[in-house]
């Protein structure tokens, strides 16, 4: 079987399983099976597929047909300027989260705290741009923290990581606090795609309540952990801007602003600790 024949068969199998973007996913999985960069795949399509590559491709197709995300099958996901290792223990870094990174970089900072760091994508991306800054990432999942540590080491960023439920084990103050917390309301979980609902860590998706529990905890603890003039910046769901801004205002944080992502949807709420 040539690479082209395997690719057609794989795309048809994924389409039959109801996988969106079946043809593109099949290309990515075939390149992965051949251990080739995707842009080198075309030259391999006319060649017979090595038996081991075919076995890897078939296993990847079966996983994708079961709706496992491509990033988990590949074990990596591109975000900002780097590729991050991802596992079933971490939330998959998403392009819209880059809105938070971009906004955080508009002002200088010497210290940053990332609450619920997951893969470490936000923290590591920020520290890679500001190598003189110190950074701490927290998570309640030891497995996620191991992934974050590995990503930091591979990308060449110096960061500390700590098991903590929000601020519970955090000491000190920071110029910048960032977070992409679980913000899906329990009633919204059924509407998520199988790739998200069945394969990503549930605790990173939902608070099992109204989707605002994490923001209440973060807002309550932020003033004591922000330096004067320091910023709190959180990712939100597109309908949560006003509610999250109100939570920040209620604890005395100033200048709450709601920032859109590239699709024009509310995506980040930012506020400042008074001087």
Automatic annotation (TrEMBL):
Which top EC class is given? transferase
Q: Which GO terms describe its molecular function?
A: nucleic acid binding; peptide chain release factor N(5)-glutamine methyltransferase activity
Under Enzyme Commission nomenclature, its number is 2.1.1.297
Record: residues binding S-adenosyl-L-methionine: 116-120, 139, 166, 180
* Gene3D superfamilies according to UniProt: DNA helicase RuvA subunit, C-terminal domain (1.10.8.10), Vaccinia Virus protein VP39 (3.40.50.150)
Q: Give every Methyltransferase small domain span.
A: 97-185
Keywords assigned by UniProt, alphabetized: Methyltransferase, S-adenosyl-L-methionine, Transferase
S-adenosyl-L-methionine found in the keyword field: yes
The UniProt catalytic activity note for this protein reads: L-glutaminyl-[peptide chain release factor] + S-adenosyl-L-methionine = N(5)-methyl-L-glutaminyl-[peptide chain release factor] + S-adenosyl-L-homocysteine + H(+)
Which residue intervals define the domain Release factor glutamine methyltransferase N-terminal in the entry? 5-75
**Where on this chain does substrate bind?**
180-183
Listed under GO biological process in this entry are:
methylation
What the entry lists under Pfam families is as follows:
MTS (PF05175), PrmC_N (PF17827)
Keyword flag Transferase: yes
Looking up InterPro entries in the UniProt record yields: DNA_methylase_N6_adenine_CS, HemK-like, N5-glutamine_MTase, PrmC_N, RF_methyltr_PrmC, SAM-dependent_MTases_sf, Small_mtfrase_dom
> What NCBIfam families does its record include?
hemK_fam (TIGR00536), RF_mod_PrmC (TIGR03534)
Q: Which family does it belong to?
A: Belongs to the protein N5-glutamine methyltransferase family. PrmC subfamily.
What is this protein's function per UniProt? Methylates the class 1 translation termination release factors RF1/PrfA and RF2/PrfB on the glutamine residue of the universally conserved GGQ motif.
What name does UniProt use for this protein?
Answer: Release factor glutamine methyltransferase
Protein species of origin: Paracoccus denitrificans (strain Pd 1222)
């Amino acid at each position: 079987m040539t690479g082209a024949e395997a690719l057609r068969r794989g795309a048809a199998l994924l389409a039959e399983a109801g996988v969106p973007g079946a043809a593109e996913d099949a290309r990515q999985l075939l390149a992965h099976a051949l251990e080739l960069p995707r842009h080198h795949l075309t030259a391999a399509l006319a060649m017979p597929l090595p038996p081991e590559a075919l076995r890897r491709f078939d296993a990847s197709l079966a996983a994708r047909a079961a709706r496992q995300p491509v990033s988990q099958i590949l074990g990596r996901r591109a975000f900002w300027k780097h590729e991050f290792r991802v596992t079933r223990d971490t939330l998959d870094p998403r392009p819209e989260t880059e809105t938070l990174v971009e906004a955080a970089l508009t002002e200088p900072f010497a210290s940053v705290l990332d609450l619920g760091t997951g893969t470490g994508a936000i923290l590591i991306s920020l520290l890679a741009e500001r190598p003189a800054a110190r950074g701490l990432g927290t998570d309640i999942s030891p497995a996620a923290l191991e992934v974050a540590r590995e990503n930091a080491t591979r990308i060449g960023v110096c960061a500390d990581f700590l098991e903590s439920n929000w601020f519970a084990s955090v000491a000190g103050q920071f110029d910048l606090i960032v977070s992409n917390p679980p913000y899906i309301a329990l009633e919204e979980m059924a509407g998520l795609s199988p790739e998200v609902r069945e394969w990503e860590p549930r605790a990173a998706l939902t608070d099992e309540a109204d989707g605002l529990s994490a923001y209440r905890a973060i807002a309550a603890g932020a003033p004591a952990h922000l330096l004067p003039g320091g910023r709190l910046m959180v990712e939100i769901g597109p309908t949560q801007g006003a509610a999250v801004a109100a939570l920040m205002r209620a604890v005395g944080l100033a200048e709450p602003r709601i920032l859109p992502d590239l699709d024009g949807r509310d995506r980040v709420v930012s506020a400042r600790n008074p001087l």
